[in-house]
């Protein structure tokens, strides 16, 4: 490469030496030549041209070195006269001219808009310029004019604007890397014609640049007939030519179109790129079959076609790719059978991935001996069983083995445990099969780093010993029984849906846990206090659906990195919410169906800003719903049902932006069952990006009106305010719930008309307004026409019209006033009849009594005799 320039003697020193020499001195000619060279560079000072040194210092002045850590940045060492000795600067030894500037990854922060153009153009002999990984977001893309520049790397610099056209002036360029060199939206790239000015280009990387508006991006590229490497990752490409007639990229060694949206069949000209070593079409939108002509790419070592929609059979001609090391074909729609013919000549294969092709099967003889030694095997979701593949016995160097959902049945072979003991750092995933039997009593002898055996038919006790290398263990959805052993080294443990019992105090020996899932077992006793002390790095804690009792440990306040907390359906008591004040990372909290008490604290809106899911139903929480809940802008599911909450629904409820926007999605560290009470029943969702938002405040003692702001929750899928004491009218704004599927306002004291806006809710499939004081004609039209069950409106005696049997007497809607007048008239009428009945009863009783006294002598004498005795007694007193 380039060598630092060593300074020549000064011209005055040489001249003095020459004047003392005789003409016949043999040193005279070379000293004269040296003098001429020295005079030629008399403008240089201490090994560096003054103009170029000043240019570099001017370039340095354009950066905020104080903000970059001051003296810790290599550019702070740009001092002194010899710029050729500065870090990142290289000069040609014969001339002392700066030929290379390499500041890769210095994390410099530019402050001016034209930092490069105004400062570096004096470096006219520059051959190499590498400014990758610095911050030029305040600067425009430079108008470079380095005629001799061969290497340009501006990747991850994020200029704030400018045009790429001046690059056409850099006609000597061989290498260009502009990966994410423009800030998103800073400049609309509408052509790549400047590439035609770079005939010697061999390496081109435009990854991360938005080329969606470049109608013909391919023509300038194929004009580069010396091109060896082409990287166009994540460029929003949507087109590519299919025909091979106009394509000449015979020198291409690397083609990378990772993550685009091309959405077409694989081009014919691909199979003519016989020099190709690396082909990466990962998630580029390609569909259709793969041609047998792929076998002509005999130089290919790495093939990545994963995450497209490719179908048909995997060509058997891949067996011709004898140099193949990496083959990634997973996450497509391949079908048919893969046999020994596909692999017979692949002696160099190390990475084989066919997972997520659920119509594909692998058929290999049990005594087949592979010609390769694999490092990674991915056959998850591909039919491999029912027997465990015997050919894997010879693969002793595997570091990752994925056979999940592969139709394997029966017990695991003994040799498997021997293989994982001889391998180095192996990860094994055999989940989703029908594997039976028990695990070895101890796995301490293995070199496992991850072991996933979930969703099988395994039973018996858990292994008592695990290797120190094992970081993740997942045995969920089996039939393991017994107690939980002490496993001190794990950082992730999932044992949900088994038959485990007893206490979990053995976890006190685990100090590295980040994920702990023990839900749906038979664990009992108290949640150990040590969980918040020994495992302070815990991020996900799921103890739901067990038999835990006692109070929630106060040590939970130390889990400041906790993202999801699931304790539902136990018998735990205490005031848990007051312990979560420091758990500011929480996004998922489910404390439902316990014996928890206390209030919902006001600080919840400020301290838990990431909260997405909050479920507190079926406890004994009391007090009012704090208005600060509206600050939880990411909240998608709020369930406070079946508690002792009182007061009004906060008027700010409509400010929860995630319930008003359909863009928010739930993301959790570990998949969890999300419980949503909707459409009159409990619904369970596995973590899902399209989960409907839900608000459930039912079965409390809430009073007052339904806030008008409720209608702002446009993406709400389920709203349940039933079994409260809400009064007033149903707000007209209810029509703003554009995505609502389930609406329950039953068993309240709501009155007035049902708003017409209700009929505009086109997704509504469940409605319950029963047991209120609603009146008037039931709205019709649109989605309401499909809700024909009269029980939706039962016990609202003043509602009329379909689907209830009571017809409206006229086309005029019965108003609240008319209803009140009818009720008043009815009450008055009842009072009159009560008075008349009382008077008639008195008169008839009186005359019956008198008639009896008149016609019966014995009764008459007895009556008056008794009266005389009564009065005599009174007067004696």
UniProtKB/TrEMBL annotation:
<dbReference type="Pfam" id="PF00560">
    <property type="entry name" value="LRR_1"/>
</dbReference>
<dbReference type="InterPro" id="IPR046956">
    <property type="entry name" value="RLP23-like"/>
</dbReference>
<comment type="similarity">
    <text>Belongs to the RLP family.</text>
</comment>
<dbReference type="InterPro" id="IPR013210">
    <property type="entry name" value="LRR_N_plant-typ"/>
</dbReference>
<dbReference type="InterPro" id="IPR055414">
    <property type="entry name" value="LRR_R13L4/SHOC2-like"/>
</dbReference>
<protein>
    <recommendedName>
        <fullName>Leucine-rich repeat-containing N-terminal plant-type domain-containing protein</fullName>
    </recommendedName>
</protein>
<keyword id="KW-1003">Cell membrane</keyword>
<keyword id="KW-0433">Leucine-rich repeat</keyword>
<keyword id="KW-0812">Transmembrane</keyword>
<feature type="signal peptide">
    <location>
        <begin position="1"/>
        <end position="44"/>
    </location>
</feature>
<dbReference type="GO" id="GO:0005886">
    <property type="term" value="C:plasma membrane"/>
</dbReference>
<dbReference type="InterPro" id="IPR032675">
    <property type="entry name" value="LRR_dom_sf"/>
</dbReference>
<keyword id="KW-0325">Glycoprotein</keyword>
<dbReference type="InterPro" id="IPR003591">
    <property type="entry name" value="Leu-rich_rpt_typical-subtyp"/>
</dbReference>
<feature type="domain" description="Leucine-rich repeat-containing N-terminal plant-type">
    <location>
        <begin position="50"/>
        <end position="91"/>
    </location>
</feature>
<keyword id="KW-0732">Signal</keyword>
<dbReference type="InterPro" id="IPR001611">
    <property type="entry name" value="Leu-rich_rpt"/>
</dbReference>
<keyword id="KW-0472">Membrane</keyword>
<feature type="domain" description="Disease resistance R13L4/SHOC-2-like LRR">
    <location>
        <begin position="204"/>
        <end position="394"/>
    </location>
</feature>
<dbReference type="Pfam" id="PF13855">
    <property type="entry name" value="LRR_8"/>
</dbReference>
<keyword id="KW-1133">Transmembrane helix</keyword>
<feature type="transmembrane region" description="Helical">
    <location>
        <begin position="831"/>
        <end position="855"/>
    </location>
</feature>
<dbReference type="Pfam" id="PF08263">
    <property type="entry name" value="LRRNT_2"/>
</dbReference>
<dbReference type="Pfam" id="PF23598">
    <property type="entry name" value="LRR_14"/>
</dbReference>
<keyword id="KW-0677">Repeat</keyword>
């Amino acid at each position: 490469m380039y060598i630092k320039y060593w300074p020549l003697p000064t011209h005055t020193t040489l001249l003095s030496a020459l004047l003392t020499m005789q003409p016949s001195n043999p040193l005279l000619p070379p000293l004269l030549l040296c003098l001429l060279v020295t005079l030629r560079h008399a403008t240089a000072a201490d090994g560096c041209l003054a103009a170029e040194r000043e240019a570099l210092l001017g370039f340095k002045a354009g950066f905020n070195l104080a903000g970059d850590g001051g003296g810790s940045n290599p550019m702070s060492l740009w001092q002194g006269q010899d710029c050729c000795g500065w870090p990142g600067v290289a000069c040609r030894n014969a001339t002392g001219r700066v030929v290379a500037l390499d500041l890769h990854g210095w994390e410099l922060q530019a402050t001016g808009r034209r930092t490069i153009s105004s400062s570096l153009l004096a470096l006219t002999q520059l051959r190499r310029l590498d400014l990758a990984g610095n911050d030029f977001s305040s600067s425009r893309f430079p108008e470079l004019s380095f005629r001799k520049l061969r290497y340009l790397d501006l990747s991850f610099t994020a200029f704030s604007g400018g045009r790429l056209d001046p690059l056409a002036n850099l006609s000597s360029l061989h290498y260009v890397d502009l990966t994410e060199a423009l800030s998103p939206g800073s400049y609309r790239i509408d052509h790549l014609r400047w590439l035609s000015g770079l005939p010697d280009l061999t390496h081109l990387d435009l990854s991360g640049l938005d080329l969606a508006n470049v109608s013909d991006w391919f023509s300038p590229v194929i004009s580069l007939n010396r091109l060896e490497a082409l990287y166009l990752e994540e460029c929003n490409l949507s087109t590519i030519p299919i025909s091979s007639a106009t394509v000449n990229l015979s020198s291409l060694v690397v083609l990378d179109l990772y993550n685009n949206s091309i959405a077409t069949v694989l081009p014919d000209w691909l199979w003519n790129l016989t020099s190709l070593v690396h082909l990466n079409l990962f998630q580029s939108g390609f569909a259709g079959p793969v041609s047998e002509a792929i076998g002509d790419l005999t130089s290919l070592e790495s093939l990545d076609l994963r995450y497209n929609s490719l179908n048909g059979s995997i060509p058997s001609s891949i067996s011709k790719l004898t140099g193949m090391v990496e083959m990634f074909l997973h996450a497509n729609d391949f079908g048919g059978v893969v046999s020994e013919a596909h692999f017979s000549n692949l002696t160099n294969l190390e990475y084989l991935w066919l997972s997520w092709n659920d119509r594909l099967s692998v058929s290999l003889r049990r005594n087949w001996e592979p010609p390769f030694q694999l490092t990674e095997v991915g056959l998850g979701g591909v039919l491999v069983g029912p027997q465990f593949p015997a050919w894997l016995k010879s693969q002793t160097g595997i570091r990752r083995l994925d056979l999940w959902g592969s139709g394997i049945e029966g017990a695991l072979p003994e040799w498997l445990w021997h293989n994982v003991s001889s391998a180095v750092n192996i990860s094994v995933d055999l989940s989703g099969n029908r594997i039976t039997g028990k695990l070895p009593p101890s796995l301490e002898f293995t070199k496992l780093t991850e072991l996933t055996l979930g969703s099988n038919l395994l039973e018996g006790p858990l292994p008592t010993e695990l290797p120190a290398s094992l970081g993740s263990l997942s045995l969920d959805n089996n039939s393991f029984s017994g107690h939980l052993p002490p496993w001190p080294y794990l950082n992730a443990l999932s044992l949900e849906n088994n038959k485990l019992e007893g206490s979990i105090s053995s976890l006190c020996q685990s100090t590295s846990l980040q994920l702990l899932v023990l839900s749906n077992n038979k664990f009992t006793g108290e949640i150990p206090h040590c969980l918040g002390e020994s495992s302070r790095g815990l991020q996900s804690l799921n103890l739901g659906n067990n038999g835990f009792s006692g109070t929630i440990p106060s040590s939970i306040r130390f889990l400041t990195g906790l993202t999801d907390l699931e304790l539902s359906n136990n018998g735990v008591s205490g005031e848990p919410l007051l312990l979560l004040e420091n758990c500011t990372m929480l996004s998922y909290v489910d404390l439902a169906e316990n014996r928890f008490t206390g209030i919902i604290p006001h600080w919840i809106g400020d301290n838990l800003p990431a909260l997405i899911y909050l479920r507190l139903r079926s406890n004994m929480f009391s007090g009012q719903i704090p208005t600060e809940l509206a600050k939880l802008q990411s909240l998608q599911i709020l369930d406070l049902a079946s508690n002792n909450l009182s007061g009004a629904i906060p008027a700010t409820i409509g400010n929860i932006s995630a319930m008003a926007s359909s863009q928010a999605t739930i993301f959790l560290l570990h998949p969890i069952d999300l419980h949503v009470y909707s459409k009159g029943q409990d619904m369970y969702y596995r973590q899902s990006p399209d989960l409907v938002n839900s608000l459930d405040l039912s079965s409390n003692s809430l009073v007052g009106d339904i806030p008008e702001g409720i209608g702002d929750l446009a993406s709400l899928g389920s709203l349940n305010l039933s079994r409260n004491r809400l009064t007033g009218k149903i707000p007209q704004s209810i029509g703003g719930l554009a995505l609502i599927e389930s609406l329950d306002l039953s068993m309240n004291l709501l009155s007035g008309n049902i708003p017409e806006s209700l009929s505009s809710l086109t997704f509504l499939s469940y409605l319950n307004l029963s047991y209120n004081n609603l009146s008037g004609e039931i709205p019709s039209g649109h989605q309401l026409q499909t809700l024909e069950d009269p029980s939706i409106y039962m016990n609202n005696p003043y509602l009329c019209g379909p689907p209830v049997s009571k017809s409206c007497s006229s086309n005029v809607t019965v108003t609240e006033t008319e209803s009140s007048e009818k009720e008043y008239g009815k009450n008055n009428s009842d009072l009159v009849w009560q008075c008349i009945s009382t008077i008639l009863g008195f008169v008839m009783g009186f005359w019956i009594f008198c008639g009896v006294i008149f016609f019966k002598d014995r009764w008459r004498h007895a009556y008056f005799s008794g009266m005389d005795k009564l009065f005599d007694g009174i007067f004696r007193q």
